[in-house]
Amino acid sequence: MVNMGGLGCGPLLAGLLSTYAGSALRVTFFVDLALLIPAAVGVWSMPEPVAVSDRPRLAPQRPRIPEQVRFTFFGAALAAFAGFAVLGLFTAVVPAFLGQVIGVTSAATVGLVVFAVFAASTAGQLALERVPGRVAMPAGCGGLIAGMACSRSASRRPRSHCWFSAASWPGSGRG
Fold this sequence. Notes:
By secondary structure, the protein is an all-alpha fold. It has six helices and no strands.
């Protein structure tokens, strides 16, 4: 959950900074470098969660999936692939589409659309946490399908606010 929230905050912060701060191509990177300092302090101050042995026993293992969970694993793997493909679409293609085809000139708006898909993914993870897996997987896949339908609909309307709802559906389905 924290990963999706953090991934969404990056484009939002970059969009806001490049729109409202001067020197858009530099300020975002300076802020990024400055944010590395508290992150490094946090990592270094964190206690080691496991005891480290003096002589670790490392041996290559062949990857395998136990036979009793293969069906479940492959279904989850396919859904995860589809979910990350949709996130890739919203982080790589949609910002360029908004700027070049629809004509959205505000980097803050584009960052907000990308943030919306990650925020919805975080919300979807929180909402589906209490739902049994046999219900959560089809519900999430339904959210992905509905989101792609909303994206197609939004691509025909030159309004950026349509993309906020289009980003929310697949994001929540990905969650």
